[in-house]
Amino acid sequence: MASVSPLVPVLCSTKATPRTRKNHFNGSSKGFGPKKNQKLSKTGGGLGNIVEVVQKDVEFLKAGFSKGLQWANKAFRIPEVSKSVEDLVWLRNVEDPQAKFSRFPSWPQPHYPELSGVDLFLADLKALEVYVGYYYCLAKMWTKPLPEFYDAQEVTDYFTLRPHVVALRLLEPWFLKVMGGKIIDEVFMAFASATIKFRISRISSAADEDAHKIVSDYNFGIVLKDTMLNLGPTFIKVGQSLSTRPDIIGYEISKALSELHDQIPPFPRDEAMKIIEEELGAPVKTFFSYVSEEPVAAASFGQVYKASTHEGIDVAVKVQRPNLRHVVVRDIYILRIGLGLLQKIAKRQNDLRLYADELGKGLIGELDYNLEAANALEFKLPTPFACCDAKFHKEVHSRFPFICLPKVFPHLSKKRVLTMEWLVGDSPSELISASSPESKRKLLDLVNKGVEASLVQLLETGLMHADPHPGNLRLHHLGK
After folding, report:
1. For residues 306 and 281, what is the distance between their CA atoms, to the nearest angstrom?
2. Which of 109, 131, 253, 402 is buried deepest, with most CB atoms within 10 A?
3. Burial of 234 by CB count in 10 Å (0-12 exposed, 13-18 middle, 19+ buried)?
């Protein structure tokens, strides 16, 4: 078994020769201590050694960079590319050593012998002036904004100068737009998707022959509802109008489209607050002490927030969707083009585009909340009939005890913002879904009062509520 020698400490003598390091530049060995002939700087360091090391490092970097350039020149053929670019700049490729042209050619002569060069130059200036005037007028037309009120010719002129807007809506199925946080397809894809979904629903429901008609109509209504949701505010408004006419489209389709009244996706709160500030001309806190974080309802053209004034009054603040007027007018213009094509294909004598014009006038009128506020005040108080007695002149619908009308705040209402009194009540949709004896009693009471109110408007006052869909009706806790 091998023995292990003990560890013995070794002490170095103070007179031992100091260790040396080998210089990596020249391979020589140098001591750390100063030599006899070496001069030290005033600060006590070897400044000459530092300068020498820096120079060696710079030379090393230059050598490496030079090798890198050589590799790049060889790999990417930089000299050949540089020469080709230089030849192109100097037009050496088009040079012909055999060329014999000794002087510049003469100025081209006019093609019209009866006209001199000066006459042609003046004619060119005149033509240039005509073209400049044409494009100047065209540019001035581009500055004309979208008309405030619907006019078919003005709308046509506006979009004739902006064909790309219509093209992006019609011809680009993957062009996406954000509306209330939801990405929606454009017109072509929406209708194509609706057609496919409807055909699938018909196939899936064909097994039950007895319920086929009901299921088929309801599925068609659901597909139509989703399609109109995807197409935006204009088509949602059309779907809402159709949902109130089950006598025309059928009960099942009307039932499916009725979801358009209270299932519209909202747009972001920041945009709504910005619109309020732009319309009222001051920060929101100046007018309201509280505004709900989320909208309590979202409609096709706007959404409603519950708020409180500094006087402690609860109000409903209706805010219009951003850029809504441009979107609505654009869709009406597209619908007008479609009806014009349909008229030519069907060879109809009457102008089908008039339907789009009437729809456009009605929808554009709804975008002005000042007009809606004025109509609400007129609906509540003043009468349009000057021949009636004084009592009837003071009050129209507010004199009927079963009709409750919210108060309008004109100083908090502008073109895109409408502020009205907050009224609490049960909606028809809530009463139908509750299915309790109490809800059925309230629903019957709401229907009776609604019929009576409609007869009062039709036969006595002459002022009609123009949009009486379920989303705009409530049964007050006082039975109004």
Report:
1. 20
2. 253
3. buried
Identify whether residues 132 and 224 lie together within a single domain.
Answer: no
Q: Is residue 306 part of a domain?
A: no
Number of domains composing the chain: 2
**By CB neighbour count within 10 A (0-12 exposed, 13-18 middle, 19+ buried), where does 345 fall?**
exposed
Residues 226 and 253 in one domain: yes
Q: What is the pLDDT along the chain (480 residues), one digit of tens a residue?
A: 444 444 334 334 444 444 444 444 444 444 444 444 444 444 445 666 777 887 788 788 888 888 888 888 888 888 788 878 777 766 667 666 676 655 656 666 656 777 777 888 888 898 899 888 888 877 777 777 888 888 888 888 888 888 888 887 876 444 444 333 333 444 555 555 555 555 555 555 444 555 555 666 777 778 788 878 878 888 888 888 788 788 877 888 888 888 777 667 888 999 999 999 999 999 999 999 999 999 988 888 889 999 999 999 999 999 999 888 888 998 999 889 888 888 888 787 888 888 889 888 888 888 899 988 888 888 776 544 444 444 444 456 767 778 888 889 999 999 999 999 998 888 887 788 777 888 888 888 888 888 888 888 888 888 788 777 777 788 887 777
> Do 179 and 196 have their domain in common?
yes
Q: Is the dihedral of CA 439, 442, 444, 447 positive or negative?
A: negative
> 413 and 419 in contact (C-beta within 8 Å)?
yes
Neighbour tally for 114: CB within 10 Å: 6
Task: Find all residues with CB under 8 Å of 292, minimum gap 6, and list them.
Answer: 305, 306, 307
Q: CB–CB of 150/360 below 8 Å?
A: yes
467 is catalytic: yes
Candidate list 151, 226, 368, 467, residue with the active-site label: 467
E strands, 180-272, are 182-184
Q: Give the structural domain span for 125.
A: 117-146
Q: Position 61: which residue type?
A: L
Is there a single domain that holds both residue 230 and residue 135?
no
Residue 431 lies in a domain: no
Q: How many CB atoms lie within 10 A of CB 204?
A: 11
Question: Tokens 């060696």 sit at which residue?
Answer: 56
In the three-class reduction of DSSP (H, G, I as helix; E, B as strand; rest coil), residue 314 is classed as strand
SS3 245: coil
Compute the half-sphere exposure of residue 293: CA atoms within 13 Å on the CB side of its CA: 0
In the structure, how many helices (H) and strands (E) does the chain have? 17, 11
Q: Specify whether the CB–CB gap between 186 and 173 falls below 8 A.
A: yes
- Assigned domain for 236 exists: yes
Question: Whole-model pTM?
Answer: 0.61
